[in-house]
Amino acid sequence: MKQKQEKSGSGRVHICAGGTLDVLPNAEPGDILIGVDAGALGLLEAGVVPTLAVGDFDTIGEAGLAKLVRSGVEIRRFPERKDATDSDIGLQAALSYQPKVIYMYGALGGRMDHSLANVQLLWQAHQAGVWMQIESRYNRIALLSERFRRCRLARDHYQYVSLLPLSPLVTGITLDGFAYPLHDATLELGSTLGVSNQLTGEAGRIQIESGALLVMSTRDPNGRQDEEREKNEGSVG
Q1: Which residues contact 116 (CB under 8 A, 6 or more apart)?
Q2: 158 burial level (CB within 10 Å; 0-12, 13-18, 19+)
Q3: Phi, psi of 151, rounded to the nearest 5 degrees
Q4: Are strands 139-144 and 131-135 parallel, antiparallel or unpaired?
Q5: Dist CA 57 CA 60 (whole Å)
Q6: Residue 120 and residue 184: Cα distance in Å, rounded?
Q7: How many CB atoms lie within 10 A of CB 81?
Q8: Considering the entire predicted model, what is its pTM?
């Protein structure tokens, strides 16, 4: 599937997929916003006009599609029977803008098969040489691989950091600035050793040597701490 090659002025592309859209893009001038099926309508209803809407639009139907057209959104419609999910099509469209980083929202919640498939799209972005992360109210998910071997995490509203192997082995894992540090460690697929770590200071660093490692910053949706955060942050979505 070939896309027209253009560039994002800022190097940033935001994709809003059709899952639970509980966080909206913090878009800056020059950013590209791509709505995927229901995600496009979700943006529009939040007062944000997407640059582009893609998908088969079976979720929003003809009425929703008409709203997008009336708002002047560029539409790329695909058949319902196809060899890729709408989110995958959204990622291919995002890559056509030659970005430096991609943010995906609305990728989680609802059907687990779609959520897991969206997480695996991180690998596709890495293969294209682009950093990508999935954002939701309670989760931020990124990937380390041999394309991007290290990252820095700053303290924010997420309480925990979990590391989950996406390949049979992940080697050379080093954590600095965490309650449970690691040095040149190996994690096997299925291991839970990396779950529920926490930062000890204002930032931490994660590095790997080989393999593919999901880096998940999360917070618990229950409890007093979360309620206080909700009061301070306000409602999103």
Answers
A1: none
A2: middle
A3: -150, 160
A4: antiparallel
A5: 6
A6: 25
A7: 6
A8: 0.89
